[in-house]
User: Which sequence fits this backbone?
């Protein structure tokens, strides 16, 4: 059963620390999305990639956030330094092509204290 | 990006049909209408999508207005497991149109 895998599922860290979240997209999918979900803002699109190249990262705070795809099986989202306002659930999703569905992972719940 | 408008919440009785409306008056000719839902403590999951014609799958039906400015997701028999937030989204079908923006969605409550 193909699925998007995110690690870790939960992360508690202190303010100022670096946080790295990982995502393994479904094999063969060429589009990867990163979303952040909070009670106040709902689901926000942070960035998305096609064929490992960033297409749009306008939703991402550039000073502390970075997203990369080192290879086709791994996408990473880093926050450095982390702040309490970054506390949220971060979702990764992958898809095959425009107009078709995206498949979401279970999310990483990040708490910055 | 074209926007969608949905009611904040709806309530249904178990085993009755549910019609979840969505308005998208600024839809363009290449926009697909997608529906996702998010169960508690889970990531969003795909429900159904369509372009112009009505669509059916094992989860739901999608009825699209003739002018495409609105659509309705139909759950034929609501169960308690269908209690979730339902999102109506427009996705550009052109090559490179991958951007998927979620709105606030409709929270569906199902009563036993």
Assistant:
């Amino acid at each position: 059963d193909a699925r998007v895998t995110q690690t870790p599922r939960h992360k508690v860290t202190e303010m100022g620390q670096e946080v790295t979240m990982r995502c393994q997209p479904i094999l063969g999918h060429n589009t990867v999305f990163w979303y952040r979900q909070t009670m106040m803002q709902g689901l926000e699109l942070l960035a998305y990639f096609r064929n490992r190249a960033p297409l749009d990262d306008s939703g991402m705070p550039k000073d502390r956030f970075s997203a990369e795809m080192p290879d086709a099986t791994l996408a990473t989202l880093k926050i450095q330094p982390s702040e309490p306002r970054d506390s949220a659930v971060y979702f990764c999703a992958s898809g095959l092509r425009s107009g078709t569905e995206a498949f979401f992972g279970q999310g990483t719940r990040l708490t910055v204290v | 990006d074209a926007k969608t408008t949905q009611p904040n919440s709806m309530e249904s009785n178990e085993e009755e049909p549910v019609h979840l409306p969505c308005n998208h008056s600024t839809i363009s000719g290449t926009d697909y209408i997608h529906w996702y839902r998010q169960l508690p403590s889970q990531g969003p999951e795909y429900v159904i999508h369509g372009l112009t014609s009505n669509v059916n799958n094992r989860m739901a039906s999608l009825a699209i207005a003739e002018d495409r400015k609105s659509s309705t997701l139909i759950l034929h028999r609501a169960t308690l497991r269908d209690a979730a937030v339902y999102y109506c989204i427009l996705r550009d079908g052109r090559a490179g149109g991958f951007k998927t923006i979620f709105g606030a969605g409709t929270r569906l409550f199902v009563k036993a």
